[in-house]
Specification:
With about 270 residues, this protein is of the alpha/beta class. It is about 35% helix and about 25% strand. It has one domain: Vaccinia Virus protein VP39 (Rossmann fold), CATH 3.40.50.150.
């Protein structure tokens, strides 16, 4: 699954990090010399077990500061994402999770459905099998921090292309390994999220993937608030008792630097 994006050159070790949010196990992140693509190695055979434990999602669902912060950023980012979608259009949210963006889109007058293989909340507008959606094609297909979780991102994009209308767009949000917060936190960077994140992209490596899948990159947009969330979580991984203060400062600095480099903590790619 890696070779089509790596070419014939042997991947080399980029960094070693661990699963801070769940198991505490160590993983390697390998780099493809020809494309710069990063990928997690080894991929556990029981990868689903790294999602199942309550510990992984506890900071999102709790009444703690992180629970509040996650909810706030989700709402703000949701409105920002909706600005990219035309009212009255059709939308497939691939990897819809709880169905938050699907519900938000429906309220905004978008004909939205979602796909989520593990539909724990049984949202009626979210399907656990793509075949249940039928042969319908969409104006937009969104993947909000989803593509990095897929075992074969190239195949995923090629398959989704078949679900897209003529002149339809795919909108993808990804953590950016060229961001300042990545450089600053290094192995503690929460954006790696191994082993759940199987691939780790920057602008260049995503461009290679996009081209191989037969898409053209139209534009990119930043997700400003992601840098604060990722930086605060990274400070927690470092066991810094002043993590809110330091995380906010690094997140702000990352956004300021990105004004010049365009390498924000997370980037939205719009392709067609």
């Amino acid at each position: 699954m890696v070779k089509p994006l790596c070419g014939n050159k042997k991947p080399v070790l980029f960094i070693k990090t661990k699963d801070f949010s769940n198991s505490g196990k160590m993983f390697s992140i390998m780099r493809c010399p020809s494309t710069g693509l990063l990928f997690t190695s080894p991929v556990p055979k029981n990868i689903n077990s790294y999602y199942d434990k309550k510990k992984y999602d506890s900071y999102k669902k709790s009444s703690s500061f992180f629970g509040f912060l996650y909810g706030f950023i989700q709402r703000v980012n949701g409105k920002h994402k909706l600005n990219l979608i035309k009212k009255g259009s059709s939308l497939l949210d691939y990897g819809a999770g709880s169905g938050f963006f699907v519900n938000l889109s429906l309220k905004a007058g978008v004909n939205a459905v979602g796909y989520e293989p593990i539909n724990k909340l049984k949202n009626k507008n979210v399907f656990s099998k793509l075949k249940d959606i039928g042969n319908k094609k969409f104006d937009y297909i969104t993947l909000w921090h989803v593509l990095e979780h897929t075992p074969d991102p190239l195949k995923t994009l090629v398959d989704l292309r078949k679900k897209l209308k003529n002149n339809g767009k795919v909108i993808i949000a990804l953590p950016n390994t060229d961001s300042y917060d990545n450089t600053y936190y290094n192995k503690h960077w929460a954006g790696y999220d191994v082993p759940r994140h199987l691939y780790h992209f920057n602008r260049s490596s995503f461009g290679v993937l996009c081209k191989k899948a037969g898409f053209q990159l139209i534009k990119t947009k930043p997700l400003y608030f992601d840098s604060f969330y990722v930086s605060m979580l990274s400070e927690k991984y470092k066991k810094n008792i002043l993590w809110p203060l330091f995380g906010f400062a690094v997140g702000l600095l990352s956004n300021i630097i990105a004004l010049f480099t365009k390498n924000h903590s997370s980037i939205i790619y719009i392709i067609k």
